[in-house]
Structures are given as C-alpha cells and as structure tokens.
From TrEMBL:
It comes from Microbacterium testaceum (strain StLB037). NCBIfam families: PRK06062.1. Belongs to the class-III pyridoxal-phosphate-dependent aminotransferase family. PANTHER family: AMINOTRANSFERASE, AMINOTRANSFERASE CLASS-III. One of its GO terms (molecular function) is transaminase activity. One of its GO terms (cellular component) is cytosol. This is 4-aminobutyrate aminotransferase.
C-alpha cells in the first residue's frame, strides 16, 4: 500500500542526487523517481502516486514486485547459508542448474553461472573462441548484449559508439527487420532468404576460418522487439554448422517466460550451442545470469581448464529465488497465461490501436513482449523522432511518456517505439487498463505528426 511521505521523498532525492552516479546518463540532466515500494505489477513513489509497471523495470521483473515465494526463498536461504564460494558444491546452485537444463533444448546439460547478462555473453564468447580456436564474432546491428568490453562491442546500437574501440574482433551485420528491410524485401519469405544470403556473404568475406561465433538475441529486445521471420534462426543454425561456427543465443531478456516459453528458441525450432540468460531467471531479485552449454562444448573442458570465474558465480541468495521461480511457473501456469494474454488480449488491442492511430506504423511481438513503432508518415515510414534522438528532437516521445505517467502507467520507450513488457503475473484487468492508457496517450503522438 502506498503512503505519502514527503520527508522520505526529499531525503531519498538528496542522497541520490548528491552521491549516486547513474548509468547511461548525463548526471546533472536527470531526476530519478524515488520509489517507495511495489507489489505485483505496480510500484509507487513517496508522494503516493501508483504506476503500472509496463516495462517490468528493465524487462527483468517477470514475477513482479515482492513476489512472496521469491522473497521467502531468499529469507530462508539467508538463514541457512548466506554465501559460499563457487568452487564448492551447493544445494540450491545445483538444483537450479538441474532445473534449467531440464527445460533447455536437448543436448545441453551444463550451466555456468555469472552475475548477470553482460558477463554471461562475455563468457559465452570466451567459450566459443577457446573451443574453435577462432577469435572473430559476428553480431547484429540493432542489438544489445551488455556493457562489459566484448559485450558492448557486440552491441549494435549507439551505446557502443562512445566505448569504441574495445574488442577489435567483432563484426556487425544486418538482421531481419521486415518493416524497415535493409534488403528491400516485400514479404517475410524474402526477408528471411535475403537476410541469410547477406549473413553468408559476410561470413565468406570475413573468412569463415576466422569466425568463432555468431551471437543473436532470439527476439531482439530494446532495439525493437524484432521477432525473427519463419526460417531465419534455423537458417543461421545451418550456416553455423556449414562453416564451423558456434551459435550463441542471447536470451537475457526473452528467456524464462517473456514470450511464453522457457527459452525463446523453442518457439523457432532451433537449438543453439550456447544460451545466455539472466533477468527472468529470478526476476532480478538478486543478480544472477549464466550460460547453458551444449554437451559438445562442455566436453572440451573436461580435461582442459576453463580460464574464467567469478567470486559470486551461482550465489546461493540468487539461486534460491531461481528455484522458487520454477516452482511458481509450474504451479501457476505462467507460460500458458503469457501465451493466452498475449494472443487474446494484447495482440488484438494493439492491432486495434494501429487502425485508430495514424502515428502507429507497426505493432509486433509475442506473448507479453510487444513494440508499437511510431511514425510521422505511414507511407514513408519516417520515424516519429530521429534515430537516437535526445532533447528537443525527442520531444514527441517525451510527451507520450509523460502522458502515460500522468495516467498511472510507467512506459518503456526507446527511440520511436513503445514497448509493452509488463510482469508476467499482471492481472487481466490491470493489463487492459494499461493498454487503455497507452491507447489514450497515442493521441499525443498523433498530434505530433503534423
């Protein structure tokens, strides 16, 4: 329950502005919201304002704020064994690893735990390079893989620019994006074929003998909720097999139920060599990530030491809510409800919005992971705001977000898009209410088209 406490608000603001250095921000130009608490799909500030969390914070709070089962698991584990080094065996670490591989594709039976998604991708790339003896990695434009040195180089969005050079052995290529096709495709079939042809040409021109891995977000997250067209991911798998390249699936954002599958690759009939995860594995209650490893790659390290490790790898306080997450998913039918709500509630509502609002160029997604792409002109598909817009250039999106917040919804906006990614436990009534708020706020985007 939210309670007004303006003294606490002032204290939190003062401490934050005086001493906290925030990520991805010009420090003097931000005003972070002091959050007092949360429950389920809602959080509130000290002034008593309540917000539907339509971004699941950073698309990690899959089971919502303060889920009692996850909180209890952490409390219970803290009372039994608060921490232990990763070189020792631990009950909850082993149990979580067992549960993860049971829902992973066949032929993947080992898990390397990390602190989060970036270091999961770092270590997956390290494994691929060691196993293949090849250093180069291919990654998509319009991607995000983390903020550590190789991960930020893999990233195909503007967050990479200021961090260059980092890992000189990364090459970017265009992935499928039918709405703004780099290949001038007129259908999903053409987009798949041409994107795969482009990728194969990149492999040939870069030298297959130099390429250790291709890393892909199974569904591109922050950079557009780009669902791969039919046949694309199996085509990538085939190219990796043809040229002796390790296929890394980055599921940091879409793993653990976001699109209604334990791992999103299951929806696209493909088995990668490595799967990276974080976020939804325990809803971010305690930092945790990892790499699910194919048996072939794991076997390479049976008698050869893996040269990597982390002090907090598989931390018991992080693994305990991970085990609880599996129990909640199975007991409450989370995967089934995500598929149901996505198909029955979200998709039809978003498609109806696209019909009503001239600023909506396209809606796309799956499960409880959708994007609304906003444009100035439906015919030309000119984005509502320029690529990587900031300040006055981003004003239409800023105004849209402000309208959502004023109505009690915290949106996820990125460039010219609105993403719909509420906690997987959101009630249907709240989900509909949140979509209603977005629907109304889109009138602001419509007005900005002129």
């Amino acid at each position: 329950m939210s309670i007004t406490d303006l003294d606490a608000d002032a204290r939190v603001r003062a401490n934050d502005r005086g001493h906290v250095f925030h990520s991805w921000s010009a420090q003097a130009l931000i005003d972070p919201l002091p959050v007092a608490g949360g429950e389920g799909a809602t959080f509130w500030d000290y002034a008593g304002n309540r917000y539907l969390d339509f971004s699941s914070q950073l698309v990690n709070l899959n089971l919502g704020h303060q889920h009692p089962d996850l909180v209890a698991a952490i409390q219970r584990q803290a009372g039994e064994l608060a921490t232990i080094q990763p070189a020792m065996a631990n009950d909850v670490r082993g149990e979580l690893a067992r549960r993860i591989v049971e829902v992973a594709p066949a032929g993947m039976s080992k898990v390397f735990f990390t602190n989060g998604g970036a270091d999961a991708n770092e270590n997956a790339v390290r494994m691929a390079r060691l196993v293949t003896g090849k250093r180069k990695v291919l990654a998509m434009y319009r991607s995000y893989h983390g903020n550590t040195s190789t991960a930020i180089t893999l990233t195909g969005d503007p967050r990479r620019w200021a961090n260059e050079p980092a890992d000189a052995s990364v090459v970017h290529f265009f992935g499928p994006y039918a709405y703004r096709s780099a290949f001038h495709s007129s259908s999903e079939e053409e987009e798949t074929a041409r994107a795969l042809e482009h990728l194969e040409q990149t492999i040939i021109l870069e030298g297959a003998s130099t390429i250790g891995a291709i890393i892909l977000e199974t569904v591109v997250g922050t950079n557009g909720v780009l669902v791969p067209p039919p046949g694309y991911l199996p085509g990538v798998r085939a190219l990796c097999d043809k040229y002796g390249i390790v296929y890394i699936a980055d599921e940091v954002m879409v793993g653990f139920g976001r699109i209604g599958e334990w791992f999103a690759v299951e929806a696209f009939d493909v088995t990668p060599d490595l799967i990276t995860f974080a976020k939804g594995v325990n809803s971010g209650y305690v930092p945790l990530g990892g790499v699910v490893i194919s048996d072939a790659i794991a076997a390479h390290f049976d008698t050869v030491a893996f040269p990597g490790g982390l002090t907090y790898s598989g931390h018991p306080l992080a693994c305990a809510p991970g085990v609880a997450t599996f129990e909640v998913f199975e007991r409450d039918g989370i995967l089934e409800r995500v598929r149901d709500l996505g198909a029955r509630v979200v998709e039809p509502r978003l498609r109806a919005m696209a019909e009503r609002h001239p600023s909506v160029g396209e809606v796309r997604g799956r499960g409880l992971f959708w994007a609304i792409e906003l444009v100035r002109d439906r015919e030309t598909r000119e984005p509502l705001v320029p690529f990587n817009a900031t300040g006055p250039a981003a004003a239409p999106m800023t105004a849209f977000a402000a309208a959502c917040k004023k109505a009690g919804l915290w949106p996820f906006t990125h460039f010219n898009r609105v993403h719909v990614a509420p906690p997987l436990v959101i009630g249907e009534e709240d989900l509909v209410r949140g979509l209603d708020i977005i629907d109304e706020a889109l009138t602001v985007a419509d007005e900005a088209m002129s």
